[in-house]
Please model this.
Amino acid sequence: LRQDEDGLDTWFSSWLWPISVFDGIRNPDNEEIKYYYPTADLVTGPDIIFFWVARMIMAGYEYRGDKPFGNVYFTGIVRDKLGRKMSKQLGNSPDPLDLIAQYGADGMRVAMMLSSSAGNDVMFDEALCEQGRNFGNKIWNAYRLINGWEVDENMSQTKNNAISIMWFEHTLSKAIAEIDEMFASYRISEAFMRIYKLFWDEFSGWYLELVKPAYQTPIDRATMDATRRFFDLLMRLIHPFMPFVTEEIWQDLEPRKAGESIMYAPMPKATAVDENLLMRFDLVKEIISNVRNIRKQRNIPQRKTLVLNFILDENFPAELADVVVKMCNLENVAAVEKKNPAAESFMVKTTQYFIPMEDSIDVEAELKKLSDELTYLEGFLASVMKKLSNERFVQSAPEKVVANERAKQADAEAKIAAIKERMEALK
Model:
């Protein structure tokens, strides 16, 4: 066997790619290569580390005396939902143009993000494209919502709106700091999921509901301006992942100059975060969720106002009471000295809350429901006590199992006492 004397490595031109794209072979001292070489990051697949990546590094040191890039980000291999590598031979690779036609380019990009965590293979499933399209619809519909609000220039900002804006300022800043950290460590998929949650849950699910004006009533200018500013910042965060819908909305948010694009707009910067405010607001969220659950359980319509009582302690967020009043549609929130056994009650951290139900429940139906619940709990407690009264079980069973049974006993006894107390109050 004799090696061909006139052969060239198949990857030879690829060796020189970081240099040749800036004409660095023929013109080694031109301004472009001096500015761009070495570059920051190379993004490629792990299957060509030896064929391409190693060769570029060797050529860089040989011809430029320096590495061609600082970091290499390896994407995963795209596989179908059965774990097979997508290939023409298997016929398991969808046509990207068909997916774009059905779900939009943004929807398909989201699907890739949702299925690819750093360093792992991409387990692609077409169903994720639908989730991406739905997220695009969520963004568009949120923008349509705020565009439908009428502004009253003479209207004063409510305390609820001022508090809500302050809360979202700190929520956004905390998220930006986390996203920056994820980008810095190349956790791109995690960064997208954090942004996804920020927009879907905190902004759409909470902030917009907090400041949304009542039906056919206007909103104040300060709140509207803050909301549109938040939308601008959120579009910048989402833009690297969903460039089309974000560009469209950003151009419409306010008049732009010719050639101005969100692509050149600076990314939002994190500022100091008031962790205590965020912690107190989490208590508010929990209060609101509990009141909504009671409305749902008792079939109380949202339009009917309620009264919320509480026993005052340090965990009651008094400074945020206006938010609770609006979101729960309350007549008022008032402190009481002792609990009302006839009221629906719940606890948030150490604070006890009560919603008087005298005019909102069918006493006879409620007593029957409580009686059935009491019968079940007493039967459950009897079965637990039977185990615990068995000395052989207590002595031979693992300590963890016995402790679990004692916890069941304590829980059942507490519930039985509460039900009996409530039944007495209703009678």
About this structure: Strands lie at 39-44, 69-74, 78-79, 122-123, 151-152, 219-220, 306-310, 330-335, 344-348, 351-355. The mean pLDDT is 90.
